[in-house]
Design the sequence.
């Protein structure tokens, strides 16, 4: 409980920062799952997290490819472990003296699979009912995606699993609670294009993210 009170300010700041988030218009969606317009909240967070005025976007898989592969993997979902992680988006800023990058991979996690315990500086979040864990160097998100058509029943057995890895070299990144809050919010936002592309009928990420750190479990 004391950790929740201590984080209240960070929650409010993050909520205000992202209050203008929308679901994106058709033109933005057509641009691809990794596109981040300059004025978008994703781009604002990326510049802050990577500590740069400009960054490069590298799309590892097209929208059609990632949708096709995630649908294929869902059809052969294992009972106790996540499916293959597809690296889709990389955002980075590089120079001769420093490198900062954010990589996002997508897979499926069976709902019956065991969840990894928190370790080190991990922080668990509730973001509009979506479970997110973030630390200094990663963020992971689990979100239900009700698939249409012949995948409807199978999708009830899994959650979309998002793995964000942040790589910092040659400088000191933001290790603070606020920095983790931003990584959690960014992971939520960049996943929205994937859930839109998959056609998740429950529209799980449509609301602007309100980042709420959860109380730490005490022995």
Sequence:
């Amino acid at each position: 409980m004391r950790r929740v009170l201590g984080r209240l300010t960070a929650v409010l700041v993050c909520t205000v920062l992202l209050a203008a988030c929308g679901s994106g218009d058709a033109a933005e969606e057509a641009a691809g799952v990794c596109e981040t317009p300059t004025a978008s909240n994703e781009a604002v967070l990326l510049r802050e997290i990577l500590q740069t005025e400009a960054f490069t976007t590298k799309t590892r898989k097209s929208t059609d490819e990632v949708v096709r592969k995630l649908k294929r993997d869902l059809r052969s979902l294992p009972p106790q472990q996540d499916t293959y992680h597809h690296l889709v988006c990389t955002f980075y800023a590089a120079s001769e003296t420093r490198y900062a990058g954010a990589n996002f991979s997508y897979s499926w996690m069976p709902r019956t699979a065991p969840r990894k315990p928190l370790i080190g500086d991990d922080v668990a979040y509730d973001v509009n009912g979506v479970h997110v864990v973030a630390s200094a160097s990663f963020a992971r998100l689990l979100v239900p995606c009700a698939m249409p058509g012949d995948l409807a029943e199978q999708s009830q057995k899994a959650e979309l699993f998002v793995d964000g890895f942040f790589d910092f070299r040659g400088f000191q990144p933001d290790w603070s609670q606020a920095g983790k809050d931003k990584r959690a919010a960014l992971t939520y936002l960049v996943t929205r294009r994937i859930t839109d592309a998959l056609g998740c009928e429950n529209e799980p990420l449509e609301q602007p993210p309100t980042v709420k750190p959860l109380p730490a479990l005490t022995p």
